[in-house]
Specification:
alpha/beta; TIM Barrel; eight-stranded parallel β-barrel; 11 helices; 8 strands
């Protein structure tokens, strides 16, 4: 069994070994993923790939707590990060109340919040009250409606400078690591080099300190759309559909159950 990571070992991994993070939303998958990964993210992406909504914005704190409990139950030996959903960290007081609920009602090891310099005060407030925070900079899925779509970041000099500033602000505020999403690879590399804490990429190229993917994307289970940065390691949707079709056919032709499945 792998040793459970801590914020100390995660910070120390920078420059030594790439960190492997993946999302999970339930105990079943958390248990399957646990042996291969370093950190599990209970992402608010569950609102899309689990609940079928068009974006992450309607995910609720209760929903995140419910799924985080399931994941912690399935992967007792993993470092678990719980996403704080949209609208739950707009002020320091509100952020702390909600992060405390996550820490009191689940075994999550950390929360994740989206935003850079604009969230520095909030991150600092959480950290100084005993909450471990993972930052999230670059493309921020919770800003999709505000920005009118998912926009890749780092295309201009101004965006590059602001990303480096964001990363430094998140680090200075006390975050132990951060996710960087949807950023030009050369810029993400520069961002990762500008801070001492690990920068974990998604759609940000290879020159960062680790990678995160949504499990249902990399297992090929989510069929609605496939972002460019996703590699499907198996065609999960086809495997599941083929298995279900075989089951249905065997039930209809009375080939299942057989003697060995019968009491
Ligand atoms: O919600 C999520 O799954 C995330 C990842 C895309 C990093 O935030």
């Amino acid at each position: 069994m792998n040793k459970k990571m801590t914020i100390t070992s995660i910070k120390k991994a920078k420059g030594l070994k790439p960190l492997v993070m993946i999302t999970a939303y339930d105990a079943l998958f958390a248990k399957l993923l646990e042996p291969s990964i370093d950190m599990i993210l209970v992402g608010d992406s569950l609102n899309m790939s689990f609940a079928g909504k068009v974006d992450t914005l309607s995910a609720t704190l209760d929903q995140m707590i419910y799924h985080t409990n399931a994941v912690c139950q399935g992967a007792k030996n993993s470092f678990v990060v719980c996403d704080m959903p949209f609208g739950t960290y707009t002020t320091k007081k509100q952020a702390l109340n909600n992060a405390m609920r996550i820490f009191q009602e689940t075994n999550a090891d950390s929360v994740k919040i989206e935003g850079g310099s604009d969230k520095a005060e909030i991150i600092e407030h959480l950290v100084s009250n005993g909450i471990a925070v993972c930052g999230h900079i670059g493309l921020l899925p919770q800003s999709v409606r505000g920005e009118g779509g998912y926009k890749i970041k780092g295309k201009t000099q101004e965006e590059k400078e602001s990303l480096v500033e964001d990363a430094k602000a998140v680090e200075t505020s006390g975050a132990f690591c951060m996710v960087i999403e949807g950023v030009k690879a050369d810029v993400a590399k520069e961002v990762a080099q500008s801070v001492q804490v690990p920068v974990i990429g998604i759609g940000a190229g290879k020159d960062v300190d680790g990678q995160v993917l949504v499990f249902s994307d990399m297992l090929g289970l989510f069929e609605d759309f496939t972002p460019k940065f996703v590699k499907k390691y198996i065609d999960g949707a086809s495997l599941v559909k083929d298995a279900l079709s075989s089951y249905a056919q065997e039930v209809r032709t009375k080939k299942f159950p057989k003697e060995e499945h019968t009491y």
